[in-house]
Specification:
single chain; alpha/beta; about 35% helix; protoporphyrinogen ix oxidase, domain 3; FAD/NAD(P)-binding domain; 19 strands; about 25% strand; binds flavin-adenine dinucleotide
Amino acid sequence: MADKFYSSAIIGGGISGLTAAYFLTKQGEEVALLDPDSLGGVIRSVKKDGFTLELGPNVFVKKEAIWKLMCELGIEHLAQGPAFKKYYQHVCYRQRAVKIPSNLIEFVLTPLISPIDKMQLLCRVFKSHSVNPSDSVGAVFRALVGGSSVSNIVAPAFRGIFGGSVDDLLFESVFPDMCNALQDGKSIFGYLKSKKRGGKREIFHIRGGNASLVESLKKAIAGKAASIKKEVCSVRVANSEDGGFILETSEGAIGCKKLYVATSGAATSRYIKGLSAEASHALSKVRYAGIIVVHVACNSSEPLPKSSFGILFPDGHMMGIMFSSILFPDMAPEGKELLTLCLGGTQKESFSLGKEAILLEIEAALKGLLGVHSYDLLGIHRWERAIPQYDIHHLEAVRELKMLESRYKNLHFIGADIGGISVPDRVALVESVLI
Ligand SMILES: Cc1cc2nc3c(=O)[nH]c(=O)nc-3n(C[C@H](O)[C@H](O)[C@H](O)COP(=O)(O)OP(=O)(O)OC[C@H]3O[C@@H](n4cnc5c(N)ncnc54)[C@H](O)[C@@H]3O)c2cc1C
């Protein structure tokens, strides 16, 4: 027996669960949002000595669904774009920070792409190219843009986003739209052109911290959704006639008609066994990248590349450095700069680095690579299960989740296993399920 019954229950109060709570309460549903931790999941902003530190996501791509949500919440005026119109991305290549080419002259001159790949790339991007859905991102891009482009540009970019290897991530899972377009006989140029029709993808940070999005969502659902600070330990089908589910928590049971699962991978695996042992097993195999987020401050007079987003690293423990306050000056006090460094990845030894080893990595990157003379450490934060890897194990898990959804019409998986890992993708997926 359940202690209390709700028309809808959401497990997990990160951006996926909070967005679901927002849409459901707007539709007049009686909602329970369960999370043992503070709401917002990995979106956390901390103020320290005049700096705004993002412990989780730093920037959002201005996609339609998240922008609509920001407007509905009345916080679109808080979105700030980069301080300069044109910004670059650098990559660490042979111990130097090298700009990723963004125009034809830079493409011709860049050392990041071999002469033969440059010649072949110009032909290949205009040709249609058959892809096998089970190909890795690395395999498809090697065939499209050549081995040197993948090693020096594509692989570091994917490490920076997913924390994993392009040779593990599946093309179909990471780029479902592009995979369909290429399978339909489009060239990569044709696909990119059709995507660009909507205009250049802008990015933004929320002034005062990205957690303002969380705070606004919390305010919007206050008094309408019951926020229950409990961990869900198991889920089973209710014995009632109209179906529904019983959620066992650490302190009692909760009943619901519709269930929205807004956790991912291993977290879902732990409580889903009562619905499907197969799905639970498949989810337990989903791999994660662990990320160590380090914040560092330095004087503005230090020789940081101006108008650069940051530096990506092709290998090693360091994944990337973001020049946070160069892009968004409000994130640091006058005369200072804020740098956000990410270390880790899917290799255990990278995530388990001790503090001394982390400091050595930072020293090598800031002093050795950038020539920064002096800096202060502001904080280190570890996310053990930061980013689910969209690899072959993930594909198996998604198949199981889809089967469960077709078995139970009131069960929906809206966590980061499905629809993309970025915050804008999370909002878009939830919107597509609920609106
Ligand atoms: C360091 C880092 C940097 C990132 N950078 C960016 C970026 O710049 N831009 C971008 O768009 N995206 C970025 N991402 C990705 C993005 O932030 C996340 O994928 C997204 O926020 C995940 O949201 P979520 O709600 O699906 O999951 P989460 O935020 O992980 O929330 C899941 C929630 O479920 C709860 N939970 C778990 N188990 C249970 C249980 N049994 N019962 C109840 N509750 C449970 C947890 O406590 C948690 O609050 C970054 C992620 C990290 C970690």
